[in-house]
Amino acid sequence: MAAAAPDWETLAATARACVACPELAATRQHVVVGDVPATGRPRFALVGEAPGAQEDETGRPFVGKSGALLDLLLAEAGLDRSQAAVLNVVKCRPPGNRTPKSPEVARCSGWLRRQLELLDPPVVVALGLSAAKWFLGPRTVLAAVRGAPHQVDGRAVWATYHPSAAIRFGPNGAPRAGLAADLAAVAASLPEVGA
To answer: Reduced to 3 states, what is the DSSP secondary structure of residue 55?
Structure first.
């Protein structure tokens, strides 16, 4: 279904009706398709694991505590969230915020693949291990792959910590420092707007 979507609006409408994962479909409030810039191609994409409770409630990605920290760190790095596509590997909230199961990731993969094809961001920031594994493979170790871009399907993919890890380890923890440093490196790697 996802591969046949000719544009973002069609893809979003089709995704909102998805029931491929019965457990997720039965417990979700919204399919969180993602946010895209109002006009034009995104300068970069942010890809997280799956929606949390507030995201499920609002239907938008990264609107809870993790989103607030992400917005702060993006601003500190000189990145504008309004110029980004904000997506997740899995579009429905797993019960209890558990990690998505492999079959759920597999069933949802077509949506993210088609989103990336339609939006064609030159740079992707994979937030957290689940997103990093989606792009770089199941044996990915976050500490080993973060800090530098990896070429995947013709785009630069930066793997870094998820904002929830930064919250869990506190303001002086390694995940927050690493996420901030990686976002600064991503900002430095992007071409200037209009260049």
So the answer is: helix
